[in-house]
């Protein structure tokens, strides 16, 4: 009976000791076995592992790629236009032993604080370097700038046992106090460009209008000249016909002209003509003129 009283506690202690000596390493983590704060072994492969119970302890660290959002950083590119940059980094623990020695008992919180202290100066150094303007940061060259930031941060993070996988710029904005002035300047620039375009358009319109006016004057002048030439030729031909007709039979020509004049002057029901009775206009209306014509025909 007395032996049983001692065996039960011993068995319980043995079971607890065995359970305390076994731990499981997940595939998403790395583990360090510490004894009085000193690293005794590293467990990076997933599965069961053992330690000395009550003397050794296990510290686990995430083996996945982690993300860190940095604080907003103000940078001044070479064109002196201040920008507010919001970035984030992806990183992982590459050397768990070096990581433990670098951050101690602070763990991931201390590591991220120190990593942010590396990222922010790298961002300022690259975005504020010579030749880097605000337009460069906002253009397609942004990818090359992020690669430079990643390279610098990766080199400085190696002593922490960290590998910086990538650094990305999420947002790049102007400071609040500069937005109004910047928008006003942009508005003024656009208005100036619009005024220049309007002036150039007006100038082009004036040139087109002047060319059209000159073309109209030239066409009218040419048409008038050709019309005058044709009219002159027609008048000359008409006069030639009249002269020829008059030369062939002057008396008949005079008679037809008089008949035409009578027809045009005596049109209408109230036509009145005040002329001297012996005027030559009435030669062919007087009876003696007809007698003279008959006598001329008899002779």
Automatic annotation (TrEMBL):
UniProt keyword Transport present: no
- On the tree of life, the source organism's domain of life is Bacteria
Q: Keywords, A to Z?
A: Membrane, Transmembrane, Transmembrane helix
UniProt keyword Nucleotide-binding present: no
Matching CDD domains, A to Z? SPFH_HflC
> Which membrane topology describes this protein?
Single-pass membrane protein
* Family that this chain belongs to: Belongs to the band 7/mec-2 family. HflC subfamily.
The name on file for this protein is: Protein HflC
